[in-house]
Please model this.
Amino acid sequence: MADVTVKCVLELDNGSVIADMESLIAEGAYSEVKTSTRYATSAQSLGVYGDGRTITRVILPASAPNGVSACYVNRNGAIAAVIPVAVEGQIAHDGGQLGFRLRAGDTLQMKPLTAASRTAALVVKTMQGTCAIFEATPSGAASTSMVHILTSQTFGESLVGQNVAMHVLTSKDGSKLSTGGVLYLSDRALPYGGVAATNPQAQQPEYTMTRTQNIGLSNIARLQTSS
Model:
């Protein structure tokens, strides 16, 4: 897998400071993205650079040549905030407002994809304030349960008792997705929610508003592929 340049530009404190994030990192894995050296003498972690400041807007979504699975702010080993993603050349607008206050120790983590990657990423924000990222890499005709990128827990194990408020699913599989996206299945294996997939190579992914029922421990987020 190649090393590629990834980018993200964040507005801090309503424009008084801009965090210009850019690093050369490997495709296919989450790595830290630090500030570029265009406007600073050295690359810094996001939390060091913006300690005490608030990310008010995502000027440039997290982007890479073949797309980004997901991007998030890591705080003490957990997903504290999620950043919108895009493919270079397919960015129609900024990433919107955020309102997240940074602390020293926070890092920006990003996973650039390879051109042939089939990894699908589900990014969720709950009504209770939890941010979570789930991934799955389908192979052939199969049902695949998405798992949390940090804990490997299922959808239900990660979000039990909570309700999804916003979600977005990215996948390059297109017509191979039998249901067009991901479905949330109850403990009786019956669907009660879901979200359609966006191919980031064709258009910029955007969050969809929703309100699911309470998520049960045995609930899963399932991808069904035809090939």
